[in-house]
């Protein structure tokens, strides 16, 4: 049996595409409604990155700086604030989008009732659902961060950097913001998976909306406090206590600076938080996904 | 319990709530594994090649589980593609089935906007799409309009005449009596009767399946129960 046969071959691709499409649709869409479609939703996710970059043109412009009498700009220090905002948006948007798709994160009873009588291996359904979710999260992570990746580094560097530095900046921005988005989504998946596997189905149904409420409050608080947290970054670096743990985008800021090769000791610690959190969330998501699949699909 | 369905036969499967009908349907469709015993198809245990068996199986579930964001046509396309039917064959069959079941005009509408009967027709079409050898039907007439119900009754006979195996689970005794060649009646997870409707009528000297069913599953107190309901709601 080759790999294609073992993992479902064509049915895997069809189902992955189906599950992915399902993430972008309203479950109870009525006949007259126009479908929102994948490009429209991704465009919506990309908008904040574009708006933020357009505001930053002026901040980093050497010409505008000259008119204002700012002849030297410490770009490393000044960018921390903006990087934190980008990371917060990346973290929050993907987290909120994943909360919005709460009911579709794991294989459910509907999938079971429709797909189980068909000649498809259960492993194919599992892989397709997991792949669909991974592609969905990745698409949003790319959409949210792509414009920032392309515009922020050249805006910041202006005429001060080399081409190799620009490439490194773009890659660092992409990896850090993508990881922040992944972190936001995985945090929701782990939370959903945990409660789904711990609670009986009927209790989960009742508790579910409250868990989503708490998650949304958490994410929106991150976004609303982002500007204030960004203003106090210097203080937070000195403090480095438990408060750092409350703001996950800070961890990814550490990762960003480490990738750029500009990380001081305190930010390396934040970067290590990001790495550990991502690894734990990825493993926990996978474990809960397998357990959820066994519990609800088999 | 043990029973056999030869090709070309429609077997009606009857029993009160909790008698084990749904469990049998789930076992026959491969949704659950039996704790004891086995299901043989052409002499082979279906568990030996469950996907091979499912390729030859069509199933109309009692509850209309559908991906309601898809249109009727998209849903049938999804099922047909997952059954790996060739594209041209699939398109031809989808168009044909939508036409037969009067769904052509609503084929692009989301299933969320379909009535119960329309959803039932989509489930029937999905079950027939791959020309199955065995068809398991769980309350297939649920929500169907009069004309569609008549078409389905005739269709079941046509399918049986074409040599297909039909397993038909239902509560609607009048339809079972009219459609099925043989019936199995369950009570408390046991088979209490397995014969042709005509022979059961003859053996039990009762005029119809409803009375046979009531006697076999001990439902003699139906009048009394109905009267009790009225007394309760007036109390």
Descriptive account of the structure:
The complex is a heterodimer of chains A (298) and B (235). Helices cover 81% and strands 0% of the residues of chain A. With 298 residues, chain A is mainly α. In chain A, helix 3 (38-60) packs parallel to helix 7, helix 5 (75-100) packs antiparallel against helix 7 (122-157) and helix 8 (163-198) runs antiparallel to helix 9. Chain A starts with a helix and ends with a helix. The mean pLDDT of chain A is 84. Chain B has ten helices and eight strands. Chain B has helices at residues 21-28, 50-55, 72-82, 87-100, 116-128, 146-161, 173-179, 197-204, 209-216, 222-234, and strands at residues 10-14, 40-41, 44-45, 57-60, 134-138, 165-169, 182-187, 190-196. The longest helix of chain B is centred in the middle third of the chain and has 16 residues, at 146-161. Chain A binds chain B through residues 10-11, 14-15, 18, 22, 25-31, 33, 109-110, 112-121, and chain B through 29-31, 51-52, 54-55, 57, 59, 61, 63, 65-69, 78-79, 81-84, 106, 109-110, 112-113.
List SSEs of chain A in N-to-C order: HHHHHHHHHHHHH
Shape category of chain B: globular
Tally the helices of chain B.
10
Residues in helix, % of chain B: 40-55%
Q: What are the segments of chain A in which pLDDT stays under 50 over at least 5 consecutive residues?
A: none
Low-confidence stretches of chain B: none
What is the tally of beta strands of chain B?
Answer: 8
Strand content of chain A: under 5%
Radius of gyration of chain B, in angstroms, nearest whole number: 19 Å
Give the helix/strand class of chain A: mainly alpha
Biggest β-sheet strands, sense, barrel of chain A: none
Radius of gyration of chain A: 21 Å
**β-sheet strand percentage of chain B:** 15-25%
Question: Which term fits the overall shape of chain A?
Answer: elongated
Structure summary, number of beta strands of chain A: 0
Distance between the termini of chain B: 43 Å
H/E series of chain B: EHEEHEHHHEHEHEEHHH
């Amino acid at each position: 049996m080759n790999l294609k046969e073992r993992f479902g071959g064509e049915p895997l691709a069809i189902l992955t595409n189906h599950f992915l499409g399902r993430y972008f649709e309203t479950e109870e869409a009525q006949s007259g409604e126009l479908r929102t479609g994948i490009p429209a939703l991704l465009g919506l996710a990309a908008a904040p990155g574009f708006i933020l970059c357009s505001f930053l043109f002026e901040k980093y412009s050497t010409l505008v700086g000259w008119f204002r009498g700012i002849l030297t700009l410490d770009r490393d220090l000044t960018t921390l604030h903006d990087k934190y905002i980008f990371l917060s948006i990346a973290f929050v948007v993907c987290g909120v989008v994943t909360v919005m798709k709460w009911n579709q994160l794991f294989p459910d009873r509907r999938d079971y009732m429709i797909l189980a009588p068909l000649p498809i291996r259960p492993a194919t359904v599992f892989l397709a659902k997991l792949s669909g979710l991974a592609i969905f999260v990745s698409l949003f992570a790319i959409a949210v961060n792509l414009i920032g990746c392309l515009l922020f580094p050249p805006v910041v560097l202006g005429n001060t950097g080399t081409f190799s530095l620009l490439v490194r900046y773009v890659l660092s921005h992409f990896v850090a913001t993508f990881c922040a988005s992944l972190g936001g989504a995985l945090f929701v998946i782990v939370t959903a998976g945990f409660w789904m596997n711990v609670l009986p189905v009927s209790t989960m149904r009742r508790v579910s909306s409250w868990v989503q409420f708490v998650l949304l409050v958490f994410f929106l608080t991150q976004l609303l406090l982002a500007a204030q947290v960004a203003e106090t970054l210097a203080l937070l670096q000195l403090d480095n206590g438990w408060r750092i743990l409350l703001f996950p985008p800070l961890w990814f800021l550490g990762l960003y600076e480490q990738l750029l090769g500009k990380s001081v000791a305190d930010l390396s610690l934040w970067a290590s938080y990001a790495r550990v959190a991502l690894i734990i969330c990825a493993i926990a998501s996978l474990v809960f996904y397998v357990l959820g699949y066994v519990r609800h699909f088999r | 319990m043990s029973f056999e369905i030869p090709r070309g036969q429609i077997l009606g499967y009857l029993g009160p709530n909790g008698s084990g009908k749904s469990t049998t349907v789930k076992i026959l469709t491969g949704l659950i594994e039996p704790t004891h015993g086995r299901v043989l198809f052409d002499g082979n245990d279906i568990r030996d090649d469950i996907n091979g068996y499912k390729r030859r199986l069509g199933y109309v579930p009692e509850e209309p589980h559908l991906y309601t964001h898809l249109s009727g046509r998209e849903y049938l396309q999804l099922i047909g593609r997952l059954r790996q039917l060739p594209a041209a064959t699939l398109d031809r069959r989808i168009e044909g089935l939508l036409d037969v079941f009067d769904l052509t005009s609503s084929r692009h509408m989301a299933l969320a906007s379909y009535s119960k009967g329309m959803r039932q027709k989509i489930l029937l079409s999905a079950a027939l799409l791959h020309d199955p050898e065995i068809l398991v039907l769980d309350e297939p007439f649920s929500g169907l309009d009069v004309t569609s119900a008549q078409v389905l009754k005739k269709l079941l006979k046509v399918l049986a005449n074409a040599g297909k195996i039909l397993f038909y689970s239902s509560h609607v005794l009048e339809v079972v009596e009219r459609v099925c060649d043989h019936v199995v009646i369950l009570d408390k997870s046991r088979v209490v009767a397995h014969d042709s409707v005509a022979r059961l009528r003859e053996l039990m000297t009762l005029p119809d399946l409803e009375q046979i069913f009531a006697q076999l599953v001990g439902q003699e107190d139906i009048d009394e129960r109905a009267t009790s309901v009225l007394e309760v709601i007036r109390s």
